[in-house]
């Protein structure tokens, strides 16, 4: 039978981070950030399901130019985790990509800093097999009241540039004006990324909070993307692009005593859709007062915690699942978990219903 899963890490003094399952890949890439003053560093964790081997790691700048190369030994059926400053000890402040090639491995990226909450995991982007050229959807994107969104696009092709544009929409599916990288506010921003390179688009965190979704449209090549949120008092969280579906399932939990809570952000990929959201216990049974209907306009978006979605359901001490189905079109989604303490903020991928 199909199976989906997420792992949530909790590190004392850092916070929580969540990541979904990983596919076996012959080659992958991940965005890399190294900021010595802030103590921020990015790394990778990889597991080998076969015999031992050697992985070749190539560090490139945002222009796709090779900066450093090294090799990483991975034992048979073993695991390795390294930060970029461990792989390249002489590396200074840096923004770029890391491409890893070798025996098939499953991997995730990890980013940590010196402050509580500066801890997140990020999905890696497949290089081999190369991803299909298609829209990239990000079900949650926001800015303001200190909230900062940073979208890191990468080009996994070895020979073709990736060109296109980013577009942003609010809850009602209307174009959302945002200032990225200090430029005047716009609802669409073009990108042109060299092979093996990357591009970073960061909001300014100013003004009142505005929430919506984002998508990257391609006119040439292929891209991958990861999105990192920074929320004052909570920390950072990262998530990859979401795959369109007509339904999904995600684990949810809430503890009113500790303030830990789970929510979901859902966005329509085009047409207006009618959503049915169902809260289920660990045995898969719908809970009393745990079903609600919701409508999204074309390109519309909603983000709600489970106690907001189901105010009459008993979620004070709850562990179970949330299923969401759509009629009339497809949706993308990501789960969000946060708590009352610094660092208790993470995003989690959802699993498509079969």
Summarize the structure.
The chain is mostly beta strands and 354 residues long. It contains 2 helices and 27 strands.
Description:
By secondary structure, this protein is an all-beta fold. The chain has 2 helices and 27 strands. The protein has helices at 84-87, 306-309; strands spanning 6-11, 15-20, 25-35, 40-48, 53-61, 66-74, 79-83, 94-112, 119-123, 125-128, 136-143, 148-154, 162-170, 188-193, 198-202, 210-220, 224-231, 235-240, 247-255, 261-268, 273-281, 286-296, 301-305, 317-327, 331-338, 345-348, 351-352. Strands 3, 4, 5, 6, 7, 8, 9 and 10 form an 8-stranded antiparallel beta sheet that branches. Strands 22-21-24-19-27 form a 5-stranded antiparallel beta sheet. The longest helix is centred in the first third of the chain and has 4 residues, at 84-87. It is globular.
Q: Can you give keywords for this protein?
A:
mainly beta; five-stranded antiparallel beta sheet; 2 helices; 27 strands; globular
